[in-house]
UniProtKB/TrEMBL annotation:
Record-annotated Protein arginine N-methyltransferase domain positions: 266-430
EC number of the protein: 2.1.1.319
Alphabetical keyword list: Chromatin regulator, Cytoplasm, Methyltransferase, Nucleus, S-adenosyl-L-methionine, Transcription, Transcription regulation, Transferase
Name of the protein: type I protein arginine methyltransferase
GO function term, MF aspect, one: protein-arginine omega-N asymmetric methyltransferase activity
Biological-process GO terms, alphabetical: methylation
Chief place where the protein resides: cytoplasm
Subcellular location: Cytoplasm; Nucleus
Top-level division of the source organism's lineage: Eukaryota
The reaction(s) this protein catalyses: L-arginyl-[protein] + 2 S-adenosyl-L-methionine = N(omega),N(omega)-dimethyl-L-arginyl-[protein] + 2 S-adenosyl-L-homocysteine + 2 H(+)
GO CC list: cytoplasm; nucleus
């Protein structure tokens, strides 16, 4: 489909090829070459319809159907550009400003790479993938508590469940006393919500399924604004999938003033970590490309590129809390107030005091989600010291680690930039405070993580967490021993390069701690949107 176009040429606004409802300034990204223009007869006097180089005042158009005394409905079925022209330039400016605001909502999925959108909804259309989320006991039970234990926010209320999936949060809302729940689901999983609701007598009349992206719903389709919005729009490192933007869009358009959001806030947490084994694993993944005689071809020219490729990948697995070498910093995002625009570029400055002499190999991250209800606050935490979830934790690696002594500070910034793959590119800059010794990770691709929990026998398994098939946790004690053997003689600010040669022996020793890696029984399913596995 062609890129959306709403350019202003003089007094013309050209809209192509979207269906367009001028009265509500509503865009439907259907790709149909037809336009629907709806506005009051009064407003229509000032507007002209432009088709190619012909234009006609809306009020003069005869081939219209009158749906109500107040609205003029015009259906155009011709191919090509369809537009409006206003005689009054200030009116046009106002129109264009409003249009741009509304356009952002309706084009949410148009702005993305379409193959990304397609695989995204295909993924969620499968029961197996909904089941994975439902069976994340920490996630589902926390949502359950947050909803059913905040009865005052649901009793007799009108609710919306954005991204209903199998419908579970809609059903919890009814259990908490909601009068009616709009279960909004863009994928064909909407059919399952209906199926399950009709199979459970207490749900059937209380659930209304809207099987479309929330961005395409109009207020007129609802009984009114809702009292409470529930959603699980959370991807890896909170923001992968960019579904929180749809959550904010639903808030702006459908939540009553003073209404509640479940969750109402999220915190992103980052802390520096030291994990030489992980770094070594990644640094050595380019081994194949060192081959100088692969069927007579020297592959080694690709070695550097291969290393960069692996360091661009965030590592998703559980983190042994002992790897963290400073207290985490938390950045709170208040879903009740933040804007979609504020999520396009996120910057997290940091200044960590390092607790022990170590190599800092990068930044570890996780998130918490808050449900601050009228009856009680419930927190869904994915921190390394909490029970594991399907989000695990995440680590962003520095290709060249920093050697830091206890008490030194590491300062810098984590930057996140939204991209058209419904995800983010991240960059990290870290410097030992008061020195010019720094390291950076310039382009990390949040959409393309390595699910190390499934690929490395060295991946950590927190107590009480079911291991992936074939996984053995590395011993934290042995790990720490080896780690400190490597790092105890580091001078303040000494660059890592000098340490490289001393690394291999103990890493080899640690590599045999676990059982030999085996393929997990079920290979992780992924659409590239985080460990929904
Ligand atoms: C993470 S799943 C959560 C499913 C379910 N609420 C649960 O907690 O088990 C997110 C769901 O939101 C749907 N979704 C994502 N963006 C959407 C949008 N803009 N409008 C409607 N549904 C959306 C996806 O298809 C997916 O089923």
């Amino acid at each position: 489909m062609a890129a959306p176009n709403a350019s202003s040429e003089g007094h013309h606004v050209i809209l192509s090829p979207y269906r367009f409802d001028a009265n509500e300034l509503r865009w439907l990204p259907t790709g149909e070459a037809a336009a629907k223009v709806r506005m009051s007869k009064e407003a229509a006097k000032n507007w002209r319809l432009v088709l190619g180089n012909q234009s006609v005042a809306l009020s003069e158009i005869r081939s219209t159907s009158m749906l109500s005394p107040n609205f003029l409905i015009l259906e155009l079925v011709k191919q090509g550009h369809v537009g409006l022209r206003c005689e009054d330039e200030s009116g046009l400016k106002h129109f264009v400003a409003e249009l741009s605001k509304r356009k952002a909502d309706y084009e949410r999925f148009e702005q993305y790479d379409q193959s990304s959108v397609q695989s995204y909804f295909q993924y969620y259309a499968k029961l197996a993938n909904q089941q994975n989320m439902l069976q994340d006991g920490v996630r589902t039970s926390t949502y359950n508590r947050a909803i059913v234990e905040n009865v005052d926010d649901f009793q007799g209320k009108l609710a919306m469940d954005l991204g209903a999936g199998s419908g579970i949060l809609s059903f919890f809302a009814v259990q908490a006393g909601a009068e009616k729940v709009y279960a909004v689901e863009a994928s064909s999983m909407g059919e399952v919500v209906r199926l399950l609701a009709d199979a459970n007598a207490f749900l059937t009349k209380k659930i209304e399924v809207i099987n479309r992206p929330v961005e395409t719903i109009t207020a007129a389709e609802l009984d009114g604004k809702v009292d409470v919005l529930v959603s699980e729009p959370i991807g890896t490192f909170l923001f992968n999938e960019r579904m929180i933007e749809s959550y904010l869009c639903a808030r702006d358009r459908f939540l009553k003033p003073g209404g509640k959001m479940f969750p109402n806030a999220g915190t992103l947490c980052v802390a520096p970590f030291s994990d030489s084994l992980l770094h070594w694993e990644q640094a050595n993944k380019n081994g194949f490309w060192k081959n100088t005689n692969f069927y007579g071809i020297d592959l080694s020219a690709a070695v550097q590129r291969c290393a960069k490729e692996h360091f661009r990948q965030p590592i998703v697995d559980y983190i042994n809390p002992e790897c963290l070498v400073s207290k985490a910093i938390e950045t709170r995002f208040d879903f009740m107030t933040i804007s979609v625009e504020s999520l396009q570029k996120i910057e997290i400055p940091f200044d960590f005091e390092i607790s022990q002499p170590c190599l800092v190999h990068g930044l570890a991250g996780w998130f918490d989600a808050y449900f601050e209800g009228s009856n009680q606050t419930v927190v869904l935490s994915t921190a390394p010291w909490c029970s594991g979830t399907h989000w695990y934790q995440i680590r962003f690696l520095l290709e060249v680690p920093l050697a830091v002594n206890a008490g030194q500070h590491v300062e810098g910034t984590l930057k996140m930039e939204a991209n058209s793959l419904q995800s983010y590119y991240l960059s990290i800059f870290m410097r030992i405070k008061g020195t010019d010794i720094s390291s950076s990770a310039p382009c990390i691709d949040l959409k393309d993580p390595e699910y190390r929990f499934y690929t490395s026998a060295n991946s950590y398994c927190p107590p009480g967490t079911a291991q992936a098939a074939g996984q053995q946790p590395a011993s934290p004690q042995q790990y720490q021993q080896a780690h400190f053997a490597q790092t105890q003689n580091i001078l303040p600010g000494q660059a890592f390069a000098a340490q490289c040669e001393t690394r291999a022996p103990w890493v080899e020793a640690t590599a045999v701690w676990g059982a030999a890696p085996q393929r997990p029984e079920t290979a992780p399913m992924t659409n590239g949107f985080g460990p929904r596995t």
